[in-house]
Description:
Blueprint: E1 8-12, H1 17-28, E2 32-37, H2 41-46, E3 52-56, H3 62-76, E4 81-84, H4 100-110, H5 112-128, E5 133-137, H6 150-169, E6 176-182, H7 191-199, H8 218-229, E7 240-243
Parallel strand pairs: 1-2, 1-4, 2-3, 4-5, 5-6, 6-7
Helix pairs in contact: 1-8, 3-5, 4-6
The structure holds nicotinamide-adenine-dinucleotide.
Amino acid sequence: AGRFAGKSVLVTGAGSGIGRATARLFASEGAKVLAVDVTDGVEETAAGHDGIFAMRGDAGSEADVTAMIAAAIEKQGGIDVIFANAGISGGLPGILDQSVEDWQALLQVNLIGPFLAIKHGAKAMLDAGKPGAIVCTASVAGLRAGAGGPAYSASKAGVINLVQTAAQQLSGSGIRVNAVCPGLIETGMTQPFYDLARAKGKGDQLGMLNPLKRGGEPIEIATAVAFLASDEASYVNGHALVVDAGLSSS
Ligand code: NAD
């Protein structure tokens, strides 16, 4: 039972934070989930959760992405949903301090990663004649300056444009491509900021920048991703869904 009963799902960056919460939500609603990460956190994501299978892989590597999709098809009988979520933050450096290598390493995961997931995921869906849904993780950092370092923000702005272009180019296929733009969520990525703020006795102020006056939980992004991936969102395409408690609009 559940919205994803019998569906085959691939989640990247599933060893922590938003990816872990989303993999578990999909599985709890009946999906078979291939959870992929570069770290052993992915085995922890799967442990004790029926329907989640752990796999190591690099979301920024074309060989690894094709291997993930092949594994999902082989182990789970197809590929219906892809959540291209893996991302790295690169800290908060100034534009004068970043190297070309910093940019390339970050773009490889944050922007080329979603491109590879869309390219090979859509190909597999077209081959099978079964159009599915692809969701990519962007960020409020991709909507306006100031929420991340220069390469990070540019990568996330790129993801928002990429899902629009992909939706357009896959026109007529039935495949839907969307993005989610999280605000500040407490995960491995933001832990250093939370730790620093708490050490200064200002931990409760981190979420105060938004109208709901609190930080978000990974499950609050997972529920939005599940909506975009579900048949309930059958007419939502090329869209970037902002889930940030009003941060970017206030
Ligand atoms: P996280 O660090 O807790 O999780 C990210 C996971 O991605 C980690 O387990 C990491 O090992 C994995 N990963 C990194 N590079 C990878 C690669 N090349 N291949 C496979 N896996 C890889 O952070 P999170 O907050 O859950 O991040 C998930 C996504 O959400 C990222 O794309 C991030 O940019 C985005 N995001 C996070 C926030 C936030 O406030 N936490 C806000 C906006 C967007």
